[in-house]
Design goal:
Low-confidence stretches: none
Radius of gyration: 25 Å
Strand content: 15-25%
Strand order of the largest sheet: 2-10-7-8
Number of helices: 11
Helix content: 25-40%
Largest sheet: 4 strands, antiparallel
Structural class: alpha+beta
Shape: globular
């Protein structure tokens, strides 16, 4: 049985403000550090607001726009570029504001509308459909403040709203716990690798350093069985909207850290499929793009998937180099420095040839020492992989429940939700 609700004009209950056009900031006005933080749309990520990706501005520029100074429980919505990206302000630690491409949305009637419920509405397909309806046909899509004024919203009683929110919050909290554990695992593996191996290496890779006996500088090419770029046939192919049975990873999937289930499908011949099929132990590396160049992913299991021409696939002889030793090196600051040099060298249009990649030099200890390190860290990597799969399952559960809860299709009015 569906829940009863009333339809209201959401704009009547919201405070909605954006940065006034002439108060937009120039690039040179951004500071590397300061007491006043500014959020750009790039900082609005699936996982929440990435505060590390925010900039800083002067006190004068901050105070000239008091209408967009942030408060706890403000909801942020991008209104240009990728429209509808969200942020939810919680536990605000310092004075913050927003850049020109973001609306600040504030609930002005908390006795009538639960703010968490409102946030989940903005995450739901209903709001995505709304955005599509008001931007479709626009040469330059843009979300206007007036678009919110008459936006209709199906509103349950406050108690039911809070029950919906508590169910979705429980899922979100578990996802966030898993993400924090994975971040901690990454940090532990990074520190262990640095302490075990990189203390003998400078960023300049000076071969004359005092290194232990038996340790040698080697190129990645010494361990590569096969290397090639992806299928030209799917280089610029759009992600097809039907299930071909074959997934395809693209550069954007690496830069956005998308899981296998989130990759698009490929329409590819049987011959090309056999040539470009991804197998356990393969390494995929982005060879194009300023932000994505050098990003990599280790394939943890055989996949019914291929990769496109923006990526390099490496097949490695793991009898000569430890899987996790190589994983550590390709996530190290030395590798990042190497990629930065390639980016500068090809700055007009960043592009990495296979030879550039496999010429990357590593200081390699004897294989038995690499194996000892792998013994210390393999359970960390497996736990990380397990938690990533759990996050994906929880995301799916949330995405299935969200529209059903928002529409009242699931009657939770008599459910005790004291989580």
């Amino acid at each position: 049985m569906s829940l009863n609700f009333e339809t209201v004009s959401l704009g009547e209950h919201l405070y909605i403000k954006g940065r006034i056009g002439w108060k937009g900031l120039k690039k040179e006005e951004y500071l590397d550090q300061g007491d006043y933080r500014i959020i750009n749309a790039t900082a609005l990520e699936e996982e929440g607001i990435n505060w590390d990706d925010c900039g800083y501005i002067s006190k004068e520029r901050f105070e000239e726009s008091p209408e967009i100074i942030l408060k706890d429980k403000d909801i942020l919505i991008s209104k240009d570029g990728t429209i509808g990206k969200l942020g939810y302000v919680k536990n605000l630690e310092m004075d913050s504001t927003v850049a020109s491409g973001i609306f600040v949305v504030r609930n002005q009637n908390e006795e009538y509308i639960d703010t968490d419920f409102l946030y989940y509405y903005f995450k739901s397909p209903f709001f995505k459909w709304f955005i599509k309806s008001v931007t479709e046909g626009s040469v330059i899509p843009h979300l206007y403040q007036r678009d919110f004024t008459d936006m209709e919203f199906n509103l349950f009683d406050l108690d039911t709203q809070k029950k919906c929110s508590s169910i979705l919050n429980a899922i979100e909290e578990k996802i966030n716990v898993n993400r924090k554990i994975n971040k901690n695992l990454d940090n532990q593996m990074y520190l262990l690798f640095n302490n075990y191996f990189l203390k003998f290496v400078s960023s300049n890779e000076n071969n004359d350093l005092d290194i232990p006996d038996g340790w040698k500088f080697k190129k990645l090419s010494e361990f590569v069985i096969k290397s090639n770029t992806g299928a030209d046939a799917i280089k610029k192919a759009p992600i097809v909207d039907y299930d071909t049975g074959i997934k395809c990873i693209r550069t954007g999937d690496l830069s956005n850290n998308r899981s296998f289930e989130e990759w698009g499908y490929a329409d590819i011949s049987e011959g090309n499929y056999d040539k470009y099929k991804l197998s356990k132990g393969d390494i995929i590396v982005a060879r194009t793009g300023t932000a994505s160049l050098g990003l990599n992913r280790f394939i943890m299991e055989d996949l019914n998937a291929v990769y496109n021409n923006g990526l390099i696939r490496l097949k490695i002889d793991y009898s000569k180099i430890s899987h996790l030793f190589l994983y550590g090196y390709l996530n190290s600051y030395i590798y990042k420095k190497y990629i930065e040099a390639i980016t500068i060298e090809t700055s007009t249009r960043p592009n990495m040839k296979i030879n550039y990649l496999i010429n990357f030099k590593m200081l390699c200890p004897p294989y038995n020492i690499q194996q000892k390190y792998e013994g210390l860290t393999k359970n960390m990597l497996f736990l990380k992989y397990k938690l990533e799969k759990e996050i994906l399952s929880l995301n799916k559960l949330r995405d299935v429940l969200l529209p059903k809860l928002m529409s009242g299709e699931i009657d939770i009015s008599k459910i005790n939700c004291d989580f």
